[in-house]
Amino acid sequence: MSTAAAAPVNMDDIEDEVPAVKVKKTKKEKKEKKEKKEKSKPKQDGGDDGDEEQLNDEEQLNGNADLADAAVDGEAAATESPKKKKKKRSREVEPEEEALEETAKVAKADEDDTVASARNHRPRTRSMDVKEESAPVQHPSVDDFEISEVTKTHLKKRGIENLFPIQAQTYVHILSGKDLIGRARTGMGKTLAFALPVIEGLLRGNIGAAAARRFPRVLVMAPTRELAKQVAADFESTAPQLRTTTIYGGAPYRPQEEALRRGVDIVVGTPGRIIDMMDRGTLKLDQTDYFILDEADQMLDMGFKEEMEKVFAQCRGEADGAERREVQTLLFSATMPEWVQRVAKDYMKADRMYIDLVGNSAVKASQDVQHVAVPCQWQTRASTINDLISVYAAGGSKRTLVFCSTKKQCNELIVDEGISFECQPLHGDITQANRESTLSGFRKGSFKVLVATDVAARGLDMTVDLVINAEPPSTASGRVDTEAYVHRSGRTGRAGRKGVCITLYTPRSRGALAEIERHIKNAFVWRGSPQPDDIIAASAEAAVEDMADIDDNVLPRFASAARALIAERGAEEALCAALAMITGHTKALAARSLLSNSTGFVTLLYTSAVDIGYPSDVWAALRRKLDPDVTESIRGMQITAEQKTAIFDVPERCMRTIQPVIDEVDWLEVCTTLPELNIRREELCSL
């Protein structure tokens, strides 16, 4: 991986958000760029989307965001138009250019040998004015870093040969003792980003050979039990020679206290249990060298600020009135609200590093995730989720995580008759023993559908292929919770894998999706509920894939029955009947609405030659052609975003009367794909 070296970024500078300054190009640079553009024209005309393009000036100055996008997409941002650049250059100010150049010189002068050795693995920052060509980001090998052989061996046993960008960017800084804030999209390896350099720091200090009854040198605080156990597992598998223990609520005190008394190097825990252990005198932090906050945004959002302050004071020795100790503080998160930055300013050193692989990047959510919006009335929620799992999770053979807003909704959903797949709940009322049993079953594939609340699902350390939001996430005050959406969708599409996140919405919550779109800068794909043909096709495909697992020695035992069936019904019909039996679709499926997934309804599409101003325009045309009993049965009229079409539902029983009209006119047809719907102004104003 080749990226430009970056000087340390002061958080105070970032908070002030000094406007980016453009660096003027020389005539020679302009000429070279023009020649390069002309050379690339034939390829662009040929539709090759894989061509590498040149970074524009603003993207060079906001390099952290570029690097994150390149890591996810494998390509850099597109070039700005010359007209746009000319307009921007007219607003440049000479003193600001000089200040920018001076910043770059100081950054270069301050670089020491250790930092320089990792130049190719570090992010660009706002202070850079170095022009560089964009290139697909390569994950650097672990052999490119100063990592001990024993640690490399353990990493490779885990199948880790290369480091993700957030891991590569932060390694040298953490190892050199810098306080650091790391931000990367969910699923991009933040845990190992702090675990690896901390482990190396401990090994270099010969910590693993210390006395048996030793106090912890590392304290990691995580918001949930699941995340704490995941973090501890990363430490244990990467450095089994170090002693790691996990402390969290919902489990007996005695085993955790005994582990602390025997002596540990690394403690990973949740805020409540950490404070309890401190108050009981079993957790001593006066020899702690590292204090790490994982998922810091979630921790503060859950109201753990006081606990964090108390732990900080204990680590620094302030609680005993002794001289303040220096503790290296690391803060990692997928999002970075302003109040997280304020906490960093209060508790971290002035020369703290800020490694941001999201930054001001337009895209906030993972680009490896397809974001899908599906309309659904609340009463058909369970059956819609069941159909979505059938279509998007290979007939239920892939892991699916369903998010609900409350514990009550989780419990209601798992017992709903509309869900045919085995599923289990995960929320705050589940006992710790049941939680561990549930997660173990989900991990092993004993069941494929997990229904969870936001907090309970934090820190899941397994691959999920499909995420379904039973409704758009919201805060306690009822506002759209865009940060929760980023975290939820980040449960899939992790570490470069592709994933799908589907959000169900009602007409009242449709505006919430527009707010989420504006925040994550990822457009939703607007689709209707799966139709019978989609469900059967997905089930048949999954059944065909499962046939590959059949032992060939079993087949001859069915040969006689197969020959008889083929003789009676023909080969194709016999196989169709067998697939219908295997998938459980032995009876014709009733029509389903694209708008709401209501059974027994068909969605129709009305097309106008001019823009449709009001639904009454559509009603007038329909009443001229359809019987009154049909028009009175119409429901859910919606004007689409393009304004020239409208969709609505009619009972399936009315299709016998409507079909002749569809055959006669060219402005009415059965809708097979849900078009993007129009969002009314009042819906947006209610956000």
Question: Mind explaining what this structure looks like?
Answer:
Residues 47-60 have a biased composition (Acidic residues). Belongs to the DEAD box helicase family. DDX21/DDX50 subfamily. Residues 35-46 have a biased composition (Basic and acidic residues). With 687 residues, the chain is α/β, with parallel strands linked by helices. The protein is built from 29 helices and 18 strands. α13 packs across α15 and α17 (381-392) crosses α23. The longest helix is centred in the first third of the chain and has 19 residues, at 27-45. It is globular, with a radius of gyration of 29 Å. The protein starts with 10 loop residues before the first helix and ends with a helix.
Alpha-carbon distance between the two ends: 43 Å
What structural category arises from helix and sheet content?
alpha/beta
Strand content: 5-15%
Q: CATH homologous superfamily of the largest domain - what is it? A: P-loop containing nucleotide triphosphate hydrolases
* Main sheet: strands, sense, barrel: 7 strands, parallel
Count all strands and give the number. 18
Q: What percent of residues adopt helix (DSSP H or I)? A: 40-55%
CATH class of the largest domain: Alpha Beta
CATH topology of the largest domain: Rossmann fold
In the predicted model, the low-confidence regions spanning at least 5 consecutive residues are 1-28, 36-137, 680-687
Overall spatial form: globular
Round the Cα radius of gyration to an integer and report it.
Answer: 29 Å
Number of helices: 29
CATH architecture of the largest domain: 3-Layer(aba) Sandwich
What order do the strands of the largest sheet run in, or round the barrel if closed?
Answer: 3-4-2-5-6-1-7
Supply the number of structural domains: 5
Mean pLDDT: 77
